[in-house]
Design a protein that fits this description.
The protein contains 27 helices and 28 strands. By secondary structure, it is an alpha+beta fold. Helix 9 packs across helix 20, helix 11 runs antiparallel to helix 12 and helix 12 packs antiparallel against helix 13.
């Protein structure tokens, strides 16, 4: 039949009462949902309530209908399935490859989240579905036995299919959703086999089907994602399942078959919002079959697909007009730019040490490019010969990947941002199919050149060789998988991983966390609230929680509490540092654990004891130390220390004050409000800088309440600060020498203490000064600046005229060292910094350097 006649027949069969009514109903459903969700429409509350309450019952109904339909079609499926199965050797090799790849992923890749906020949203929605039968995100929640009280919830901007699968598993595997990582791994071989079977069913080319599934599954991005619990692996699984059932429905062409396909496609649409666009390809190619005569296939297909797509449609409608990108970057309008950048990211050469730059294999992308050219010319050539299979394949792929355009156009789909690399999974199955075409056809061509008897064994041998070569190429990057090169710089997922690791070390107990992203913990079945909510509670409410959890209430200062630039400007990130700072001033916290995440921030875990009942600014006020004015003209006048203790709250009854001068204890007493003076004898002062430290502690809770340091420079005997003027030589491996500032031109800060005198350098470095033999001693303090926290460690040497005079141990952040050296007769003094390993973040500050004659 000619195309024109086929189109006319299709339209004629559509124009009958059942077909028209079904089409109108199918179109009205999304139209009404879209209309009600308009930002200016005034009906958004209706969509909000439907989005919260309708998906779960509709999912359950959808699942029940699918089970019933498959039960009726079970015998038919078995007969059809036998007809599409390839020869045993191909099937056995496919099963073996699927299992082998899954075993490799399960043993070489750590199970952990890759995109913490997105993945934890699915988990939090699942908890809300299970406990409250709602489909929104439980942003803050308290678990009370078998019930979850969502004290703050919102509509989820994520589609809800993945959360529903979690919900189904929770009665069997528990509400602690760590089991999802094993479920995800199990999905990998199933997705492999489904893709293999789907392509076999459509093409009757088992070699092509196997190579396509193999190429897809061997991509590092795919393997990493199947060890996480992102929605993209479910997308791959459901895309293969949809193609597989599409072929079954296409061949059998009954109402029940098309209804089952519609249900499958509708659930496929629950993976990503953009997935709705790839349904166009299925609908386009279904038209000629469901409208080959005037019956109920078309209306059933359209109405079923529209009805069960409602959860995804509600989500899309409710979030009309929401800007998800935030910050200074506008996502829209960068499609070609992102396409170009992503090609660069996916074809980057190896690092100098042989490590993958990104979790992509360059050869795969070039195979795809070759396959694309081959498919285009094959489609045109075959069409001229009257065969349109590859032409229609090309049309299907183009329609299917309208969604890819929508992703790159509407979100910051730039793969140089690690969290966005997961979007490639939407494209990789199709890329793998296209890449496999020329390889499979080349193997078949050479096999066919042999005798008929040898052709099949040769083709199978080529398949085995390709399997060995491609698998070995992926598996030989074992160290990259062990190092988690995908998102190993994703600070938020590292933060969650470290917190959960700390949690595993603790005795089992019910706990409450106060955190910037509480839904992360709620997703794992742990009670959690936001900083702001805790601040809004009364003292009695806070104490109620402390009692309820037997003191197991913890505050976590994480990524959101740091102002430093730890994120990409195209990514969706917000910082609430001021909120955290205020919280820490108001609340009684006892530090439990500090975990270094990156060179810009720590995760800090503290036990929460309620609100402070005192004003932190009143604890102690310290004046600058000065020589006693009564003896101002005396060269040996004592040092006068003046301080005020102003806090009079009841809490002070357990407080103590300790004052030290360098290593000497000056005062150790109970805290008592008032103004005080302490005289320090001249004989206790050392030449150069003297550190006076005031520490106020709560002796009952064993916590430090205040720690103030003041510095006094004693120029006795001509002692002088190290002058910049005698600097004669300097070199360092990164950056420039800064005098009085850090390497990044900030205040020099060591272990939270600010310093104004000294200089900063970057290891490895050597800084030399001309002493001209004038000084008998040199002393300096030093440490790694707090501005950059990821150094592996540094040591310092003091060198005089080429001889090592003093050496420090290797030190890391949070430690201030002091070294002295005898420099009598030394002409050239050199300060050398030596990194323990990598030079990254080795910002060394030399503070209070002095020369003693």
């Amino acid at each position: 039949m000619k195309i024109k006649d086929s189109i006319l027949l299709t339209l004629k069969n559509l124009l009958h009462p059942a077909g028209l009514i079904g089409l109108v109903i199918a179109l009205i459903i999304p139209a009404i949902i879209w209309f009600l969700g308009r930002p200016s429409g005034g009906h958004k509350e209706i969509i909000r309530q439907l989005d919260l309450n309708l998906p779960l019952p509709l999912f359950l109904f959808q699942m029940a209908v699918a089970i019933i339909l498959f039960a009726f079609l079970n015998k038919d499926f078995r007969e059809w399935f036998k007809g599409i199965l390839p020869q045993k050797p191909f099937s056995i090799l496919a099963i073996a490859a699927a299992i082998g790849i899954a075993v490799f992923a399960g043993t070489q890749i750590e199970a952990r989240h890759r995109v913490q906020s997105d993945e934890s949203v699915f988990m939090s929605v699942a908890q809300n579905m299970y406990h409250n039968h709602e489909s929104g995100t439980c942003n803050q929640g308290i678990f009370d036995g078998s019930h979850l009280n969502c004290i703050a919830k919102s509509n989820s901007f994520k589609t809800k299919g993945l959360a529903f699968l979690y919900f189904l598993g929770m009665p069997l595997f528990g509400t602690d959703l760590h089991w999802i990582f094993n479920a995800e791994l199990l999905m990998l071989p199933l997705a492999f086999l489904l893709m293999f079977l789907a392509i076999v069913a459509w093409t009757k080319q088992p070699l092509l089907a196997f190579l396509a599934a193999l190429l897809m599954a061997l991509q590092p991005t795919v393997l990493f994602q199947f060890r996480a619990m992102s929605v993209e692996p479910l997308y791959i699984f459901l895309s293969a399942l949809s193609l597989f059932i599409f072929k079954w429905a296409y061949d059998r062409n009954t109402v029940m078959h098309w209804a089952l396909l519609a249900i499958t496609l509708a659930f496929f649409a629950q993976t990503r919002q953009e997935t709705a666009f790839c349904l166009l390809s299925f609908i386009f190619f279904a038209f000629p079959k469901i409208l080959d005569k005037k019956d109920f296939k078309a209306p059933t297909f359209f109405v079923t697909l529209s009805l069960f797509s409602v959860p995804a449609l509600l989500t899309i409608s409710y979030f009309q007009g929401f800007g998800f990108q935030g910050g200074e970057f506008e996502a829209h309008g960068h499609f070609l730019e992102d396409l170009k950048r992503n090609w660069i990211e996916m074809t980057r050469p190896l690092k100098e040490n042989g490590e993958l730059e990104n979790p992509f294999l360059t050869y795969f992308n070039y195979l795809f490019a070759i396959g694309g050219v081959y498919l285009l010319f094959r489609a045109i050539y075959d069409a001229t010969k009257g065969c349109r299979f590859y032409l229609w394949t090309l049309v299907f792929l183009l329609l299917y990947h309208v969604q890819t355009y929508m992703i790159l156009e509407n979100v910051s789909g730039d793969f140089s941002i690690q969290i966005n690399q997961r979007y490639s999974l939407v494209m990789l199955p199709s890329m793998a199919f296209v890449a496999a075409l020329p390889i499979a056809h080349a193997i078949e061509y050479f096999a066919a050149s042999a005798s008929k008897k040898e052709a099949k064994p040769l083709a199978f041998a080529g398949m085995v060789i390709a399997t060995i070569v491609l698998s070995a190429w992926t598996f030989h990057y074992k160290e990259d998988f062990n190092k988690n090169i995908m998102y190993n710089r994703n600070h938020l997922t590292t933060e969650e991983h470290e917190i959960l690791g700390w949690l595993k070390e603790q005795p089992e107990a019910d706990r409450l966390f106060i955190y910037g992203r509480p839904w992360h913990f709620v997703g794992y079945g742990v009670s959690s609230i936001h900083y702001d909510r805790a601040r809004q509670m009364s003292d009695a409410e806070l104490q109620k929680y402390i009692d309820k959890y037997n003191g197991e209430v913890y505050y976590i200062r994480g990524l959101d509490c740091w102002d430093s630039q730890t994120y990409h400007k195209k990514a969706v990130e917000h910082r609430i540092a001021t909120t955290c700072d205020v919280f820490e001033r108001e609340m009684d916290l006892v530090g439990v654990k500090n975990i270094l995440i990156t060179n810009n921030y720590w995760v800090q875990i503290a036990k929460f004891n309620g609100r402070k009942h005192y004003n932190p600014t009143n604890i102690i006020q310290v004046s600058e130390p000065a020589r006693e004015s009564a003896a101002e003209n005396s060269s040996e006048a004592p040092l006068l220390l003046n301080y005020k203790l102003k806090e009079q709250a009841e809490a002070t009854r357990n407080w103590a004050l300790r004052i030290t001068l360098d290593k000497f204890l000056l005062k150790d007493t109970v805290y008592a409000p008032g103004e005080y003076n302490v005289l320090v004898g001249y004989d206790k002062l050392q030449p150069g800088y003297n550190t006076i430290r005031y520490i106020v502690t709560d002796t009952e809770k064993r916590t430090k309440l205040a720690d103030v340091s003041k510095y006094y420079f004693n120029d006795a005997g001509g002692t002088t600060r190290l002058p910049q003027s005698i600097l004669v030589e300097h070199r360092q491996d990164w950056g420039k020498l800064h005098w009085g500032k850090s390497i990044e031109n900030h205040d020099m800060i060591l272990d939270g203490k600010h310093f104004a005198e000294g200089f900063s350098t970057h290891a490895a470095s050597e800084t030399s000064f001309n002493l001209e033999g004038k000084y008998r001693a040199f002393r300096t303090s030093f440490g790694l600046d707090d501005e950059s926290l990821c150094s592996e460690g540094v040591s310092v040497q003091i060198i005089g005229d080429g001889n090592v005079l003093a050496t420090s141990p290797v030190f890391q952040n949070g430690i201030i060292h002091t070294l002295s050296a005898n420099t009598e007769g030394v002409q050239k003094l050199t300060l050398k910094t030596i990194p323990k390993g990598s030079i990254d973040c080795s910002h060394v500050d030399f503070v209070h350097p002095v020369l003693i004659p």
